[in-house]
Amino acid sequence: MVTLTLVPSLLLRTAAISLPVPKGTFPTTINERDEVAGYCVDSIAVAHGFLRDAQGRVTVFEAPAAGPLQRQGTFVSDINNAGTIVGYYIDSKRVHHGFVRKPDGAFTTLDAPGAGAGMGPPIIGHPELRSGQGTLVTGVNDGGVVTGYFIDAKNVRHGFLRDESGAFITFDVAGAGSSGTAPESVNGTGQVTGTYRDPPIVVDNEEIHSYRSGAEHGFLREPKGTIKTFDKPSAGSELTGRTRLKTVNNSGTVVGSDEGENGTHRGFIRREQGAPITFEVSCEDKAIAITFVAPLIAGVTKTITISGRHFGSYPSAADTEGPYVVIEDSAPGRGCACDVPLGDLGDHCLDTVRVMRWTDTEVAVTGFAWPFKGPCLFQAGDRVNVEVWNTQTGAGPATCELTVGMR
Predict the structure, then answer these.
(1) What is the pLDDT, as a whole number, of residue 338?
(2) Cα–Cα distance measured from residue 110 to residue 87, given in angstroms and rounded to the nearest whole number
(3) What is the rounded CA–CA span in Å between residue 353 and residue 257?
(4) 198, burial (CB in 10 Å: exposed 0-12, middle 13-18, buried 19+)
(5) Higher pLDDT, 296 or 77
(6) Which stretches of 8-55 are assigned E, i.e. beta strand?
């Protein structure tokens, strides 16, 4: 369960969020008419589709039967030059359904033959969360041909193409494991790019069986059904098992990414002829980061000063979009960050915390005290986790862990 504590002018999280649901605006595609489509996620984590035209006018829309609860709603994947939008929605039972939205707003729901209608297995590392089966549309070309994948009753992914008449072609990359075949895009000639995974790998550790995801590869499917697979973007590079093909243009040029030895992905362009081109874009200076936290001393109630970059600006007291700062002591019951149920502002210390200073490079919070017991003092040896989120840009959290020292 996610546990949040709302305090005056500050929203603090006192328990780890399993999988944060980012809120805000997520453009996913643009056509040659400068029409941008994507989805937005509201304050209760429901997704809604949107279309922004070249004049900046925005239309927000819902797919029929899209679910109204957290992690449900309408997700947009692609738009073609005629203004046809495709994507998928998650219904109230968490099942996925593909859709095609015409320029006049008319919807067609797509359920690929063989698509499951149940729940998938728990997400690895997050057993409280499960993803539904069903159909996900990921791309559309100017002829109205769409591509995507469906998850069957055994939780295996299969690729598909669907033409304007509604006829489906399903396909699988040979050797794909249970994660299956996941197309990403289709061009005007009918070439499809996407990703597939090898079967999961069984890992034996002291008689305990566990599974590790199989290697990830890119693929290109030709209009007549021939499938080429890709493992590395350039001659001489090592096989990393993390190659992804994202899109293909009408000339047959594909773009994607490949993971290097240090875990960082490189972009690449692969043309029909000639050697692939790899490239990297540096964006580290745009990321939120904590570079220093003032030392914490046992028995002292003090301001906690956090230095870094890209913290953003402090919102007004009426703006409760958060969380923005987390101060979490690993010593529950005697530290300054107790595990408190949502909405419970009872016997704990966090509803006294207040922001003293908030700039793009520095945040300072103070006022650690129990409401009815006086100051809340850190004790020597306590491990305190500090996190800062920039909800204005969706970046974060930047994290830092420190140990409370002696006087």
Answers:
(1) 39
(2) 10
(3) 44
(4) middle
(5) 77
(6) 10-13, 24-30, 36-41, 47-52
Task: Tell me: cis bond preceding 323? Omega within 30 of 0 counts.
Answer: yes
| Residue 134: CB atoms within 10 Å | 26
Q: Looking at the DSSP assignment, which residues form a beta bridge with residue 97?
A: 89
Angle at 291 between CA 285 and CA 295, to 5 degrees: 170
**C-alpha to C-alpha distances, 136 to 9, 73, 96, 98, nearest whole angstrom:** 41, 13, 6, 5
Q: If pLDDT is split at 50, 70 and 90, which confidence band does 374 have?
A: low
Distance between CA atoms of 223 and 192, rounded to whole angstroms? 8
Q: Compute CA 82 distance to the chain's CA centroid, rounded to the nearest angstrom.
A: 28
What length does the chain have?
A: 407
Q: What are phi and psi of 317, to 5 degrees?
A: -60, -25
Q: How far apart are CA 12 and CA 237, in angstroms?
A: 45
Residue 230 half-sphere exposure toward CB, CA atoms < 13 A: 26
- Token readout for 266 is 């490189």
DSSP string over 233-263 = SSTTPPP-SBEEEEEE-TTS-EEEEEE-TTS
Q: What is the DSSP string of 170-229?
A: EE--TT--TT-EEEEEE-TT--EEEEEEPPPEEEEETTEEEEEPPPEEEEEE-TTS-EEE
Residue 350 φ/ψ, nearest 5 degrees: -75, -20
For residue range 315-373, list pLDDT tens digits in order. Answer: 654 444 555 777 776 665 554 543 333 233 334 444 566 778 888 888 888 766 655 55
Q: What single DSSP character describes residue 299?
A: T
Which tokens hold the place of 191? 């070439």
Q: How many CA atoms lie within 13 A of 142 on its CB side?
A: 10
Tokens, residue 296 = 């914490």
Domains of the chain (ranges; CATH) run 19-284 (2.120.10), 286-403 (2.60.40.10)
Q: How far is CA 117 from CA 42, 49, 87, 347, in A?
A: 26, 23, 18, 45
Sheet strands (E) in 300-361:
304-309, 325-329, 354-358
For 18, half-sphere exposure in the C-beta direction (CA atoms, 13 angstrom radius) is 11
pTM above 0.70? no
Task: Calculate what percentage of the chain has a pLDDT beyond 90.
Answer: 27
Tokens of 323: 């969380």
- The structure tokens 């809120």 sit at 23
Nearest CA-CA partner of 268 in 298, 247, 288 = 247
